[in-house]
Write a structure and sequence with these properties.
By secondary structure, this protein is α+β, with helices and mostly antiparallel strands. It is built from five helices and seven strands; from the N terminus they run αααβαββββαββ. It has a single domain (about 5-180), classed as 3-Layer(aba) Sandwich (SMI1/KNR4-like), CATH 3.40.1580.10. The strands form two sheets. A five-stranded antiparallel sheet has the order 1-2-3-4-5. A two-stranded antiparallel sheet has the order 6-7. It is globular, with a radius of gyration of 16 Å.
């Protein structure tokens, strides 16, 4: 079993054990066919670590009312495709001329960016970056903000690193949980 698949199986177990948490709405695993369909529709070969995550859970059933971690709702494959398509149609390649390219391209959206979470309505999204800036790493994870300003930040250099980091924070109980069941990490790992 890979690190990512193992990490997500353990993440879901830990989340289910937290009182008042919304983990009940996690979807069943995506099939190999569904994952292949995602790759075909977006035209990108996904990292094995991201496919392993989807093979444990295909996001959440109610993606816009219950956050799984922090204030983030995890998209299922159909929502990834829908949000990605909308962003590509609307903003693909639109340059932000006042921003200097570093780890993230200075554009509003790039077709190589795969959204997999949102804090409701797409205002902030965690993105799998398959088309990084000149100093970035293919497969890095970053938090996308509307307007894509200097506040964009790399969360992890890979989806596997992101998953291991998430598991570590949950295992070590480096979080608080609100009365509403919102899990917040002490270091804002997922916002």
């Amino acid at each position: 079993m890979s690190d990512t698949k193992n990490s997500w199986e353990n993440i879901l177990k830990l989340l289910k054990a937290i009182p008042n948490n919304s983990c009940y709405d996690v979807n069943a695993p995506a099939t190999t066919r569904e994952i292949k369909s995602l790759e075909e529709k977006i035209g990108i070969k996904l990292p094995d670590s991201f496919k392993e995550y989807l093979s444990v859970s295909d996001g959440q059933k109610d993606q816009f009312s219950h956050a799984l971690i922090g204030y983030m709702n995890f998209f299922d494959i159909s929502t990834i495709i829908e949000v990605w398509s909308n962003m590509v149609d609307e903003f693909d390649g639109d340059i932000i001329d006042w921003k200097t390219e570093d780890k993230i391209k200075p554009v509003i959206w790039d077709k190589g960016w795969i959204p997999f979470t949102s804090n409701g309505g797409g205002s902030n999204m965690m993105v799998l970056d398959m088309a990084p800036g000149k100093n970035g790493t293919v497969g890095q994870i970053f938090l996308w903000h509307p307007g894509l300003g200097d506040e964009d930040e790399i969360t992890a250099d890979s989806f596997e690193e992101c998953s291991v980091g998430l598991l570590s924070r949950l295992t070590n109980k480096e979080y608080t949980i609100s009365d509403l069941g919102v899990i917040s990490f002490n270091d804002y790992y997922f916002v």
